Amino acid sequence: MKLSVTLIVRNEQANLARLLPQLGFADEIVVVDTGSEDETESVALSHGAKLFRFAWKDDFSAARNYALKKASGDYVMWLDADDFLPPKTQKLLMGWKKSNPTADFYYARYRMDGSFPFWFWRERVVRNCKQCRFRGFIHEAIVPFGQVAYLDCEVVHRPACSHQRRNLLIYRNAAAKGKRLSARDKYYFARTLVDNGLFDEAVPLLKKFVCSCRAGAYDKREAYKLLAAHALSEGDSRAALSFLARSVRLLPPDGEVCCLFGAVYFGAGNWQFASEWYRLAYSSRSQGGFVNEYYNGFLPCVQLSVCLYRLGRKEEAREFHLAAKSVAPTHPTVLANDVFFAD
Fold first, then answer.
1. Backbone dihedral angles phi then psi of residue 76, each to the nearest 5 degrees
2. Domain 3-157 carries which CATH code?
3. Three-state SS for 124?
4. Any idea which fold 165-342 has?
5. Domain ranges in the chain?
């Protein structure tokens, strides 16, 4: 059984030099360059990768699928140059290869690195066949097929910069060319607008998306979160509650939904109701969609320290402050609360 690893790259010499030595489990490494002007290609060749070139056309699926077609392994694993594979992941994949795998489609955790990391399940190793193809010109994905399984490991994404401006430009260019967007495309376009602070454009798209019968439940829940957060920022708690209520009709609330409910009651000074929602966030063990340590740990602890203090339960309040401090000891809010609780 052979495992191929595929990457699409552009000006990634430093990241490739870091990542490629981590791929000792791979039988083949396929690197597709989309127009590098640095030493990306020579770095790839020096680590034994098979190098191909592909003219970039604002379509991630086109480039990834070209790489897949060049892979000869029985299974294919895709990565980005700025990904990192912990030793546990490398060891697990080596053992997985020797276990005579039978599933067609394997998920692994995809962790986004940062001050407050979050992760989600992402397709990672797929049987090399005609169904193993990406869809979507941006935020591309492979549609699950056959027998699906989960790998107990993670790939860590460590981008050096934000790609939100680049993504917005790709969407703008697609719209200018009259490209037809799927429901999923429209959702991620709306998310990109939010990330770029363009709420006036994003909100109508999100409202239309949540009414689509073609939208997935997890994507709809994320859209409701964005709408609720925007409504709160506009001081419209009634609308925020409406969006959140619709989200829990779809799926059980995750940590972020609970924190948004808590924010509604926190803003109204209803410390008891707010504290109950933040406790639910703190105890959340949701494994679907985005699992965010900020909403499952840090923020609930910070807000519970305030709510419980206002309710006269000062010792409990101090305990949650210390719990928040254990997560982010140098966060400005933690430092301010250190002074407050010291008095």
1. -125, 135
2. 3.90.550.10
3. strand
4. 1.25.40
5. 3-157, 165-342
Q: Which of 145, 164, 163, 170 is nearest to 81 (CA)?
A: 163
User: Residue 330 is which amino acid?
Assistant: T
The one-letter amino acid at 274? A
Left (φ > 0), alpha (ψ -120 to 50) or beta: where does 340 sit?
A: alpha
How many separate helices (H) and strands (E) can be counted in the chain? 15, 11
At 309, the amino acid letter reads Y
- CA 316 to chain CA mean position, Å: 33
For residues 247 and 219, give the distance between their C-alpha atoms in angstroms, rounded to a whole number: 10
CA-closest candidate to residue 305, choices 32, 331, 155, 23 = 331
User: Residue ranges of the chain with pLDDT lower than 50?
Assistant: none
Structure tokens at 9: 């790259």
Tokens read off for 177: 């060319």
Cα gap 193→201, rounded to integer Å: 7
Tokens of 272: 């008891």
Question: Full-prediction pTM beyond 0.70?
Answer: yes
Containing H/E element for 79?
A: strand 75-79
User: Which pLDDT score, from 0 to 100, does residue 161 have?
Assistant: 83
pLDDT at residue 286 in the model: 80
Tell me the CA end-to-end span of the chain in Å, nearest whole number: 65
Tell me phi and psi for residue 30, to 5 degrees.
-110, 120
